[in-house]
Design brief:
The chain contains eleven helices and twelve strands. By secondary structure, it is α/β, with parallel strands linked by helices. It folds into two domains: 191 residues, Isopropylmalate Dehydrogenase; 137 residues, Isopropylmalate Dehydrogenase (3-Layer(aba) Sandwich), CATH 3.40.718. A ten-stranded mixed sheet has the order 2-1-3-12-11-4-5-10-8-9, with helices on both faces. It has a two-stranded antiparallel ribbon with strand order 6-7. α1 packs parallel to α11, α5 packs across α6 and α10 crosses α11. The model has no long low-confidence stretch (mean pLDDT 97). The structure holds adenosine-5'-triphosphate (ATP). The site of adenosine-5'-triphosphate has 16 residues, from loops. It is an enzyme of class 1 (oxidoreductase).
């Protein structure tokens, strides 16, 4: 029986509250589905860790993350806690760079009971695959402001970076096994050379996946189509900043940040975290929606199953996913952000009960 080592970073703000819920759910699913075990390695990071230890991502946490089979990450950072130069505490970004987590996987799947803003209740189930390591974000800290008159940041698109993210998108589309798998390249190649290059590399890689349809949209048209007919999409692959924006649009379509999980994947490491931040307005009130964290655990279990060829974690993932679906539909897991009355505690208890 395989024991999976999970590095757990609880983070700041509502991070510890929702991660605690997701760990309760994980423990229950592990009891119900036998055939695998979990070892948790508590690994501090974030604003509170910075205040306590003088460092936001301690070396011991980084090495625990490197050694783990997967990393479960709560949101990090607090508005009032900053480095002396005024910048934010963002160990999650450091982790992304250190572990070369180049593929941001941001699913947008609508579940009954999580009200989205669109009329007609479209069956939304797409994934934004966001390139995490380059694009305009490659300029982080390196932009130039000239004479208080002009500012520049430079977009970086490399062949290697584009090939590997596009391969991730096509592999994911194959894995999702939709009736007509499709990957849509989202860019602004009509305006910028760097995006035209991204699209060219996309087209080259697409030839290696003749079983998956490949098409393109400019980002402005993609934003409109995602609102007009989101059900048409399967996998979208795009540059870092565009992916950042479109994945939040996706979260908005399925009920908001409280139900949006994510994964950041590299070739050797994988981080799973809710899309939301530390939500300082909700700290300690017991009302944070735990579903994004719980669904991140579902993604983590599926990833462990895939990478280790082990059906047991996938069975646990299905158990949790079904329990989330059932309790959302019944209203028991519907917190205030979804228009319901559940608290973090009662939503978690309902899901635990539904798992069995
Ligand atoms: P960050 O900059 O850290 O990503 P943000 O400024 O985007 O954070 P979040 O902390 O993600 O903001 O949250 C924005 C708002 O959304 C919160 O203030 C909160 O009201 C709501 N929110 C976020 N996550 C949740 C959640 N899990 N449950 C309920 N509401 C949430």
């Amino acid at each position: 029986m395989k024991t999976y080592r999970i590095a757990v970073v609880r983070g700041d703000g509502i991070g510890p509250e929702v991660i605690a819920s997701s760990l309760e759910i994980l423990a229950r699913a592990r009891q119900v589905v036998t055939g695998f075990d979990i070892e948790l390695i508590e690994s501090p990071a974030g604003a509170v860790t910075y205040l306590e230890q003088g460092v936001a991502l301690p070396a011991s946490t980084l090495s625990a993350c490197r050694a783990a089979d997967a990393i479960l990450l709560g949101a990090c950072g607090l508005p009032d806690v900053r480095y002396p130069d005024g910048t934010e505490i963002i160990p999650q970004v450091t982790l992304r760079i250190e572990l070369d987590l180049y593929a941001g996987i941001r699913p947008a799947k609508r579940r009954e009971g999580a009200p989205g803003p669109l009329a007609g209740d479209p069956a939304i189930d797409f994934v934004v695959v966001r390139e995490n390591t380059e694009g305009i974000f490659a300029s982080l800290g390196g932009g130039i402001v000239l004479g208080d008159q002009l500012a520049t940041d430079t977009q970086v698109i490399t062949r290697r970076g584009t090939e590997r993210i596009v391969h991730s998108a096509f592999r994911l589309a194959r894995h999702r096994k939709r009736a007509r798998p499709r990957v849509t390249c989202v860019d602004k190649s009509n305006i910028l050379r760097s995006f035209a290059f991204f699209r060219k590399v996309f087209d080259e890689v697409a030839l290696q996946y003749p079983d998956v349809a490949a098409d393109h949209l400019y980002v402005d048209a993609a934003a409109m189509e995602l609102v007009r007919r989101p059900e048409q999409f399967d996998v979208l692959v795009t540059e870092n900043l565009l992916g950042d924006i479109l994945s939040d649009l996706g979260a908005g379509l399925i009920g908001g940040l409280g139900v949006a999980p994510s994964a950041d994947l590299g070739d050797r490491h994988a981080v799973f975290q809710p899309c939301h931040g530390t939500a300082p307005d909700l700290i300690g009130k017991g009302v944070a929606n735990p579903l994004a964290a719980i669904l991140s655990v579902v993604m983590m279990l599926d990833h462990l199953a895939d990478t280790h060829g082990d059906p047991a974690p996938a069975a646990a993932a299905r158990r949790i996913d079904q329990a989330v679906m059932a309790t959302l539909a019944s209203g028991e897991a519907r917190t205030a952000d979804l228009g319901g009355k559940a608290t973090t505690r009662t939503a978690t208890a309902a899901i635990l009960h539904a798992i069995g």
